């Protein structure tokens, strides 16, 4: 008996690598494959009808108008054509038949692979199934994940409009800063008393909150949203325990959910993300996963972790290529990320845990400082705020036992520590 999938036309080509998901990890994986001498077929299957692009500017420079869409791609469209990487844009991978090594596609075709790399990223958490928030699907309630979302949001960033942002994570705070710069009235709501405190601790969270308040953002922390309603004058009403807040526009920025469905249906081991080893191989040796969806074993930290950051997507893209090329490389680097909000730019590196002690070098009030996190006398993580070209050095300090007084003494040259 023939398998149902064989009724679909299969792309006739030499077997090679199929990457599902046309984001940052995909772009860097195919680039590293070709740079590493891989000569077999390479295909990217991508739901979005866009050449792979970087998402960080979507909440910052793109929204502010200082970086146009055509500058978001890490590699130009020509590179893919010149390097025989087939970009199948606007096509979704619908299922994976792991035993046949075949991916079924939304255009009713299928494609066979020798190696399959899943890089499907995350989607925005919605207010319905994800957060039980009535009204989340009303017109004017937006989310931000894709270039298309960012274009829609940008069109609405008109001076004097009222934007309410539900969620004070990185994307919520970044969009708050961008919208405020565009002259909107911005209100940020979160049930947390201090934004970003879970990720970065109360000291830094308070610093960011003060920056937003100083720039005119209405910060209503400790406020839980029960739903979103329609007002009589065409405005939206964001309902909270302390009253309704009128809005022309609402941004739901309440986190992201990994796009794991393909992996689950393919029978791969999935926890929050797709479980992969230090070489990004899943429980099926022909299938790898990378970027936001990968729950990967980090050899330096000795545990699996899933990281939703730009640097991780780039590095894991390259690592997946190394694994396919047969190189013995591992996921051994420390997490890194950055953010820009108003005049604050920062970079973080390391593995901060909740109980780690924050040690500030410099004065936070000056806007330029470094925070080290210390665990049992050893530096576990560090962050440079408005101080540049030091993050590589901070990375080299992780794991060192340097006395707190030495870290804080501005008389000590940082680069000598
Ligand atoms: C607005 C925004 C701002 C950010 N800012 C920062 C920042 O300042 N600093 C930082 O470090 N990180 C930031 N990030 C995070 C960073 O962009 C992500 O970690 C990174 O994009 C992850 O790359 P990825 O390739 O794993 O997934 P993505 O870039 O999300 O790409 C996944 C792609 O797969 C596609 N896809 C999903 N399912 C299928 C399917 N079945 N078939 C085909 N295609 C599929 C999706 O449509 C998507 O295009 C930001 C993210 C966003 C959304």
Automatic annotation (TrEMBL):
Keyword set, alphabetical order: FAD, Flavoprotein, Oxidoreductase
Domain FAD/NAD(P)-binding: 18-317
Domain Reductase C-terminal: 336-405
GO molecular function terms listed in the Swiss-Prot or TrEMBL record: oxidoreductase activity, acting on NAD(P)H
InterPro entries, per the entry: FAD-oxidoreductase/Apoptosis, FAD/NAD-bd_sf, FAD/NAD-binding_dom, FAD/NAD-linked_Rdtase_dimer_sf, Reductase_C
One Pfam family per UniProt: Pyr_redox_2
Positions of transmembrane segments: none
Cofactors demanded by this protein: FAD
Coiled-coil region(s): none
GO CC annotations on file: cytoplasm
Protein name listed in UniProt: Assimilatory nitrite reductase subunit
Organism from which the protein derives: Paeniglutamicibacter gangotriensis Lz1y
